[in-house]
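quick one
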Amino acid sequence: MPKGDLKDLQYRSLRALADKLYDFNQFYRGRMKAAGVRPDDIRSLDDIVKLPFMTKEDLRENYPTKMFTVPNSEIVRFHASSGTSGKPTVVGYTHNDLEYWTEALARSLTSVGIGKDDTLQVSYGYGLFTGGLGLHYGAERVGASVVPSSTGNTERQLELMQDLDVTAIACTPSYIIHMNTVAKRMGIDIKRDTCLKKAILGAEPWTSGMRKHIEESMGIRAYDIYGTSEQAGPMFSECEETNGIHVGGDIMLIEILDRDTLEPLEDGNEGEMVVTMLKKEAMPMIRFRVKDVASLMTGDCACGRTSPRLSRITGRTDDMLIIRGINVFPSQIEYTLMRIPEVGDQYLIAITREGALDNMLLQVEIRQDAFSDKVEDMVRLRAHIETELRRYLNIAVTVELKAPGELPRFEGKAKRVMDKRVY
Ligand code: DLL
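structure w/ DLL:
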């Protein structure tokens, strides 16, 4: 679609969305009124800046479904992702929401040449996480044969990859590196002993250095795919040119704003990403501050697609961590710890990478009255803390108990997270 036509389409979608939400939804009408803006004030796409922002905190305050704008009878699916405190963010989908999500993924898979002759192993988690089911539906839409292997049990995954002549895989970049290590241990050379040709990698930050390593060591092409649960899930990927993520502009409108002033930036400049979902029904999203840092790319893509292109995600403007593809906010860790009476108020998080896999070590001070000389008491307490963290965060954390006063104190803002991973 010519760029001018896309802008017209985006404007019409935005205006219809603003009209609908102003008329029928209390939350959005309240927000627009507070910002002193009415839908008629949106006279061009540039007027989007008049609309107020939404954040993850809005979702938290309206947990679980108060942000939904359709009755429950219209909801056909739920997914959930990490929230900033004890509760996750719940995302609901109508039938149409699943439809444009699947369409977005079908376009992405097509753009990297995956179609009915391919067998795609989906090694993203199936379940509340959006990666597995998202790619699954997209791949079925393009007619590929899907191997829904989900995460874990790497040896079995490698056997299936060989036995079913898998040609493409979708997983996190760190998982494919891990798979390669396990494959070598099993005496399998992915380049020589499998039919794997392509990998669709995302859900966590990675670099062009990692791409080079993956491509060269496994003899495959690796493509970046991006999305967040609030947007629907994984959605948009690079094409075969690997020169930016093609964003379906009819589905999602991206603004890149200055990190400090939140004023719009010209294409080519890196800033905070703000997204408006133009087709979302169950849980609309206008100017949602995703907190990812990226830029919109200038120039045209050699593939001929005219859609806006997003650079790699280079960071975040908040403190969210991604551990083995799972989002973790330090505030969730704190929230979980503070509910355990034996735990004091000092803790330190260290994240390291062993081979391709992330590890989280949590040092926690115990309160004086809970401290015991009996080793079994301390072992039990440590196991209890690890279980609670696993229950709330869904990841394995190694806990180390510390005596009261043993952890460093900070003057001013405490630095509780040490991310020692090298990308
Ligand atoms: O990670 C959805 C997804 C699944 C994307 C599978 C790609 C593949 P969330 O769990 O809500 O959703 O996490 C979203 O992950 O805001 C980014 O910070 C990060 N992220 C996702 N894709 C990439 C990527 C899924 N390609 C958060 N590069 C986002 C860097 C990524 N970061």
